[in-house]
Design brief:
The structure is a single chain. This protein is an alpha/beta fold. It is built from 14 helices and 12 strands. The protein folds into 2 domains: 189 residues, Alpha-Beta Complex (Spore Coat Polysaccharide Biosynthesis Protein SpsA, Chain A), CATH 3.90.550.10; 194 residues, CDP-alcohol phosphotransferase transmembrane (TM) domain (Four Helix Bundle (Hemerythrin (Met), subunit A)). Helix 2 links the parallel strand 4 and strand 5. The chain is elongated and about 85 Å long. It starts with a strand and ends with a helix.
């Protein structure tokens, strides 16, 4: 069994900040992010060494138990011996470490090791020197049997520092983290809330993708999250909230098109898609450094289907009176959405990426509706999507044969 030890003892450099472990970064405390790392590498038991059972610690307990793991709080190093068996692996994470690097997660997942950083850069960032050239990166994995050596030390010893010395004396391998993680703010040790606040904008810029002229919707969503994402997270607005609202807005678009105006419905559907893409971008920020799951991808896929269905229904509403049966009226819109999806699937890069973007499409359809050529405009777009798909498939086949 893998067991994680988190330390919640050190106080931040500024008295009003409280404990280091409860400094917040992008809407989550350092302890919560360390917890996500521990759960992400398969820890089934989380042990916190703390001097009191504060309210944030109880919130951590609920999160651990909600993930199906067990949670323990101890106040002294020797109490750890009763929770760790010789066959266990103990993951130790130091106070104040902000764990946002997938590289570190991969190294810890490989088993027993002490993670290190180049001492020249790491010492200035608050990490502890362990030899002439290396500093401890604030995380290690060690055999559970070594924990018994804590009994040979004074009862009031620093558990984390003591376990680091025990691991080094036992000859555990050292694995060095890339030095660039310090500059990128993906593996640092924070001592105050002001440090965390200064690091957030730089980290966020690196996390979000670069602007893509062929994906204007995603580019705008990323810009919006880059501008206001931290404020949303600090206010407790999660990605799930934004994506849930996006589904509601897509349904409102259908109702608006049915009762009032197809043009307004198309623009509201576009707003729903943008809200959903912003939520997905916020989710990338929210889950950075946590265990990777397919939840974000499933939500994105479901939202795209809902928005496409809403657009198809709005096209049916504006198709004219000559088609009175809904199956016939829906066909044109569904055919357009299918053509765009085919084009996006056969070629995902370059100008074809526009086929997956739902920022420009509703605007074009709204303009067509405003001048009375919605049905004809949809048919032209469908034809262009199919021609582009066939042309790309033929070109790909010729290149393969050559």
């Amino acid at each position: 069994m893998r067991v994680a030890l988190l330390s919640i003892l050190d106080h931040a450099g500024e008295a009003e900040d409280g404990h280091r472990a409860f400094l917040t970064f992008a809407g989550k405390s350092l302890a919560a992010r360390q917890l996500e790392l521990a759960l992400g590498i398969g820890c089934e038991r989380i042990v916190c060494i703390s001097d009191n059972l504060a309210h944030p610690l109880i919130a951590l307990q609920h999160r651990v138990e909600g993930a199906g793991a067990r949670f323990h709080v101890i106040s002294a190093a020797r109490a750890l011996g009763g929770l760790i068996h010789a066959s266990d692996e103990l993951v130790v994470i130091a106070d104040g470490v902000l764990p946002l690097a997938a590289e570190a997660q991969e190294l810890l997942d490989r088993g027993n090791a002490v993670l290190t950083l180049p001492a020249d850069e790491a010492l200035d960032r608050g990490f502890e020197r362990i030899d002439l050239n290396d500093a401890w990166a604030g995380a290690l994995v060690m055999p559970g049997g070594l924990v018994e050596r804590l009994n040979q030390l004074p009862p009031d010893c620093d558990a984390v520092s003591a376990l680091l010395r025990i691991a080094l004396q036992a000859g555990l391998p050292q694995r060095e983290l890339p030095e660039r993680l310090l500059a990128e703010g993906r593996w640092v040790r924070l001592s105050s809330q002001s440090e965390a606040d200064q690091l957030e904008p730089q980290w966020l810029r690196r996390l979000l993708p670069a602007p893509d002229p062929f994906a204007p919707g995603n580019t705008l969503a990323n810009w919006l999250i880059g501008r206001w994402g931290m404020s949303l997270l600090d206010r407790g607005v999660s990605a799930r909230v934004l994506v849930s609202l996006a589904f509601v807005v897509a349904l409102v678009a259908i109702a608006l098109g049915w009762h009032f105006s197809v043009i307004a419905g198309l623009l509201i559907a576009m707003a729903g898609w943008m809200l959903g893409r912003s939520g997905i971008a916020l989710g990338q920020v929210e889950k950075s450094g946590a265990a990777r799951t397919g939840e974000g991808g499933r939500l994105a896929s479901a939202l795209e289907w809902v928005v496409d269905l809403a657009l198809a229904m709005l096209l049916a509403m504006g198709a004219g009176e000559q088609f009175t049966a809904w199956p016939d009226r829906l066909f044109g819109g569904l055919f357009l959405m299918a053509g765009l999806r085919i084009l996006a699937a056969v070629r995902r890069r370059g100008w074809s990426a526009l086929a997956a973007d739902r920022l420009i499409l509703p605007i074009i359809l709204a303009l067509c509706s405003a001048i009375g050529v919605l049905k004809e405009g949809a048919e032209v777009l469908t034809l262009l999507a199919l021609i582009a798909s066939i042309a790309h498939l033929r070109l790909s086949a010729k290149l393969t044969q050559a």
